[in-house]
Give the backbone structure.
Amino acid sequence: MQIKTKSGRVLTLPTPAENAAINAGIAADPDTYELPDAAFKQLRRVGRPVAAVPKERITIRLSHDVVAQFRASGKGWQTRVDAALKDWLKNHPACS
């Protein structure tokens, strides 16, 4: 069976026989196991928590020298650009 993704990519799903062979391989592997449904339901999400007020994704064109300087400051440079813009808005209340 084949399915088509939103991007147009075509994926071929395993046949029932292939699926059975995959599951048999998983069952035979001593280093892995399948969680029971009750244990699976108790799992919690790992990673960054979902923000109460998520940031909006936009496209913006900035001068090369501005971007280069923020990037040179290391990881988190986009957050620092956001902070610089917020600071600018505090000092220019007519624009907010």
